[in-house]
Specification:
- This protein is α/β, with parallel strands linked by helices.
- The chain has a single domain, classed as Ribonuclease Z/Hydroxyacylglutathione hydrolase-like (Metallo-beta-lactamase, Chain A, 4-Layer Sandwich), CATH 3.60.15.
- The chain has nine helices and 18 strands.
- It has a seven-stranded mixed β-sheet with strand order 10-9-8-5-4-3-18, with no helix packed on it. Strands 11-12-13-14-15-16-17 form a seven-stranded mixed β-sheet, covered by helices on one side.
- A hairpin with a 2-residue loop joins strand 13 and strand 14.
């Protein structure tokens, strides 16, 4: 009897694993052919520009598990994070210049001369395929509601991990968005979730999408990996984004360890008015797929960046460090480096290169 129950549970799990929509879908047709023709796709999976392992060499998985349970304290805030309520009307009125709103982790909303670009939107309570299990968001005093967002010209997705591509959020955003730009292989997920194929642009590294003569987006390399299921590791591409709209240039790194691609991007497309660089979820056990703090200022300089805004922190606990350690380490590494760092309160609308304060140490409160 007990074996029958176990078998039924396993069967139900396998059925869910294969058919749950939030897990996404596999590419077919033209998208699959484009994947196969990519120089970055070899032997059935996408590759990084340089050899990249998820864990550091000679680091057993058992060490990672042990470190996880013995990580730093204070990995989540003790209380609700005080955030600012997003004001749609004020955001829309800002139609001259480069404005940025950070919604926590890697979700960033850009307003570039009235052109709205939303990047890696995740507004669900958990970064997980299961609504009641998995990585839970920190508590915000003013959580963002999708219905309070304006119409959006473009959504950019860097890769298909759950903390960057969220099923529920995409479903809620779909009718508000004109275009979705994604790396190779990710279009299949969006189509399964109801996004029309004609609204999706799928790009390989260094491919350019031109909106008009003064607006273009380039998918650029990152050093990471992908997958929404154990069995689909690196079947979709991951990327960073080069955004050039009305001569305002912004770089979004996605998830990426440090690598030569930052200098290549800076030499060919810099300088950048704003760099959005991941600063969080790092660890010595996985130094190649998430940037260590001592590399962030170097990457910013490689990119010829003017203002640096740290992302990939402040919302989810996915690593072993305290939730405020990213900022502590960033400012320690920035000492005597003449680097302008923007640390906005979550939800605040900031004009880049204005006289407004570049941010306070709000996380210390």
């Amino acid at each position: 009897m007990i074996y029958s129950i176990i078998a039924i549970i396993i069967l139900i799990g396998l059925i869910w694993f294969n058919f749950a929509p939030q897990l996404g879908a596999q590419s077919k047709g033209y998208s699959l052919e484009k994947i196969k023709s990519s120089q970055n796709f070899r032997n059935g999976t996408f590759k990084n520009l340089v050899k990249t392992t998820i864990r550091k060499e000679n680091t057993p998985f058992s060490k990672t598990i042990k470190d996880y349970f013995n990580g730093e304290g204070n990995r989540t805030p003790d209380s609700v994070i005080q955030t600012m309520a997003f004001n749609k009307e004020d955001f829309i009125k800002c139609d001259s210049g480069l404005f940025v709103v950070w919604f926590g982790h890697s979700t960033v909303f850009l307003n570039i001369d009235g052109y709205f670009v939303l990047i890696d939107p995740v507004f669900s309570e958990r970064a997980s395929p299961i609504s009641f299990m998995g990585t839970k968001s920190f508590r915000y005093s003013n959580p963002i509601e999708v219905e309070n967002l304006p119409k959006i010209n473009m959504v950019l997705i860097s890769h298909d991990h759950y903390d960057h591509l969220d099923y529920k959020t995409i479903k809620q955003l779909n009718n508000k968005v004109d275009k979705f730009l994604v790396p190779l292989g990710v279009a299949a997920h969006l189509e399964k979730w109801g996004v029309l194929r004609e609204k999706i642009v799928e790009l390989d590294w260094w491919e350019n999408y031109s909106i008009d003569s003064v607006k273009s987006i380039i998918a650029s390399p990152a050093r990471h990996f992908s997958g929404r299921k154990i069995i689909d590791l690196n079947k979709t591409l991951w990327c960073s984004w080069i955004i050039n709209i009305n001569n305002h240039k912004v770089f979004f790194c996605g998830d990426s360890g440090y690598g030569k691609h930052f200098k290549e991007i800076g030499d060919n497309y810099g300088p950048f008015e704003l760099t959005l660089l991941e600063c969080g979820q790092y660890n010595e056990n996985w130094p190649y797929i998430h940037m260590l703090p001592n590399k962030i200022i170097i990457a910013h300089d490689d990119l010829k960046g003017e203002t640096l805004m740290p992302i990939h922190w402040g919302k989810f606990n996915i690593s072993l460090h305290s939730w405020t350690d990213p900022m502590k380490q960033l400012f320690l590494n920035a000492e005597n480096k003449n680097c302008k760092i923007l640390t906005p309160v979550i939800g605040d609308n900031i004009k880049i290169n204005s006289n407004k304060n570049t941010g306070t140490f709000w996380w210390e409160n």
